[in-house]
Records
---
Amino acid sequence: MTQVQDERAALLASPARGAALRSALVELYDSWLAGLLGDPGAGVALVAVGGLGRGEPAPGSDLDLVLVHDPAREVGALAEALWYPVWDSGVGLDHSVRTVPEAVAVAAGDLKAALGLLDARHLAGDALLSAELLRRAREAWRAGAGKRLPELRAAVLERARTDGEVAFLLEPDLKSARGGLRDVHALQALAAAQVIDVPAEPV
């Protein structure tokens, strides 16, 4: 087993639960991933999206990561050196390598990608590049709110139709059923469509 596998197993076997376990997993993953990337210099950043971006990784969650780079930077070898150790660790990985314009363009046509970028969080590398990605993602979300919010509503209703409602199920899907975590994230996306940024508060 790798060191991160050992440390993760120890955390999951510990008494820590809930927010304490999530915080410990975030600390473990953040430190590990920053070490894997090292110091790539200006124009390259590693960004977490999804659960890790929100600081809410579940024990079985994949790591959702974006390696962001300036168009002038060639990052193929760097990406391989980053992704392969994650695969070898057995931790699930959902990854992409994009410039900021590419990431914003993908999000324009993909609601899931757009929601993921709203949760983007800098992990390592060029912090200014990560900040640019989050700024442009939020600007695009606000500018396209007239289109995106109806899409978001449709997705919420479809989940309710297929997964039911948390309050009325004996064994509800706490992530996808109506009233579950995805609905909380939908409310956060609604807040992000407003005209100013507000500090993220735990829900």
---
Amino acid sequence: MAVYQSGHIVSITSVSESFPHGQYLSYAVIEYDRNIACKTLVPELFYVAHRTITAVYTNTEPKKTDHSIDGPFVILELSLQDADAPMLFDENEEGRVPRNSPPPIAAGMPSAAPDSHAVCAENRLEITQCGKITACDGTILPPVRERIATCKSHNLIADDFMQFTFEDISYNLFVPAEYSEVKTYPMVLFIPDASVLGTDPLLALYQGNGALSFASSRDQALHASFVLAPVFPSSYKLKSDDGLQKATKLIDKLIRLIDYISGQYAIDQKRIYATGQSFGCIALCALNICYPKRIAASILVAGQWDALEMSSLSNKELWFITSDGDARAYPSMNAIISEMEKKGASVNRNIWNAKDSSEKLSSYAKAAAEDNCNIHYTIFENNSVVPDKEEINPISNHVNTWPAAYAIDEIRDWLFTITL
């Protein structure tokens, strides 16, 4: 077993996890060459550069646990409030701003930093063992004074995606763990917001929970599926008033990409689903209008499109989600629903408080999904999507609708009940 020259440390791994507002570098795993006595550990025995240690304990496996057990792995949990915690930053001429607050660019919304662009952070830590540590066999492990950089990194769920390019776009693809060519599988297309337009495919994964929630162990156990998450160069940016003609370049590219992946894997063409937020929602409105027989069902989060054009989808299976504090998406979705009802759509309207418990929100969504309606319209009321210490305004309502929508398991489950 190899160890660092200056001590009993075998390896150090930095780990990021998916949270509703994005991917965060949330803990480190220090592997020792023997079992460590957990009861002797305190945070002050370690130092992590530019980070705050919130908990320290041992485990027999290199991962977090609610029940520590003596083992060779020391887990250092890190504060998500640290400036260096997010794996996504907004960069401009003045430097980098961590993406632990609303993104500065949202399609159709004012921009706080129009010249900024999203960049992915490096998953890396520098750690010092400051004090003596007691092993289970009684050995005292002396301090390791120098900073040791992590030698491995894991980005949970995100690392399960593969990255590719197709023509001039980059994309992420999740393949079910037990994929077999003798079966067919559904596929979920996720399109993120305009704040992550660019060429790095990881932007679509680190920005929030839209793609990663469908690739979680929970979702894959219930309905194994492919997850496709493309990113687009800024030349593809689309606004709701651009019209279908300008949208053609983007949506035709999406159809070619879907067809290409369908040629590589056994994708069930009757179970291709789509979801998107803001710019992604706008793109999917256009996609559904132009190719109504390609997408079985869609979750449309905080976006807008021409209501009369959207009324052509009155017989489709769609779930619209917005906040009543979103100055653009809310009135647009109201108009869309009104026009759809005129065309005979069966609409299930529901108004929820996003701050209700996850159990309550799950029960609301389950009841809505079981309603015999093809159009669902969920409104988060009274600025409830906005975190308590965040300023309430149309932008904060807009961007905080995204994580609130994808955090509700039963809304995601609803997609898989629909077949063309």
---
Amino acid sequence: ILSHEIHMTKPDPKVFEYALKKAGCKPEEILFIDDGFNNVRSARVLGINSIRFIGLDNLVEEIQKLDIKIG
């Protein structure tokens, strides 16, 4: 999704709503990873699994907490 094509940018919740619709997924089926606090908070409000990226070790730990299978 390119913000200039949809005329919206994060952390606007409409961006995440658009992404969910485009992907045909429910919020709980998505994992959003971003380094921006406000972006992560906005996605979480919609029920999207969200992780704030602050480093690789933290990312692995946060994914394990969510018990998400990758691959």
